[in-house]
Amino acid sequence: MNEKIHIQSPIIGWREWITLPDLNIQKIKAKIDTGARTSALHAFWVEAYRKKHQQWVKFAIHPDQYNLDIVLECDAPVKDRRIVTDSGGHKQRRYVIETLFRLGPCAFIAELTLTNRDTMQFRMLLGRTAINNHFLVNPRASYLQGRL
Fold first, then answer.
1. Domain-located, residue 6
2. Is residue 144, in this structure, part of any structural domain at all?
3. Which of 24, 29, 54, 82 has the most C-beta neighbours closer than 10 Å?
4. Domain containing 127: what range?
């Protein structure tokens, strides 16, 4: 008898705590945004540089929107630069990096664009490309994968 084994995807809420270990970000609150194609990370200072014939980007973030005294400096190889249209229809050319995400029991690689989100409530958006094939979203729930 041929039976299909179905592994259920974890369910996440409309906001979750995420770890980005390759960027040394131990916890950052993210809004799960199924309307956004690409994920976005708050970066208030961004500077490109070359490292061994490859373009890299160094950037600083405030991981906690309520405490601007906490500043993390990160760097990563640049994957791309793209024009991104935000929810207000404004176009912006952003650096794109690829990094490891940890959310609940899942670890996966996904793209992030870097942009200043100082005026936004969430320092990070997790877009639909990153959550595709990893999670189901319950838009009425929060922090289903725990609090860090």
1. no
2. no
3. 29
4. 12-135
Nearest to 35 by CA among 93, 87, 83: 87
**Token output for 75:** 């760097």
Let me know if 95 is exposed, middle or buried by CB neighbors in 10 A (0-12, 13-18, 19+).
buried
Domains identified in the chain, total number: 1
Residue 4 inside a domain? The answer is no
DSSP string, 12-81: E-SEEEEEEGGGTEEEEEEEEETT-SSEEEE-SEEEEEEETTEEEEEEEE-SSTT-TT--EEEEEE--EE
Return the amino acid letter for 143.
Y
In a domain, 128, yes or no: yes
Stated pTM of the model? 0.89
Read off the CATH number of the domain in which 24 is found. Answer: 2.40.70.10
What are the tens digits of pLDDT across the range 43-69?
999 999 999 999 999 999 999 888 889
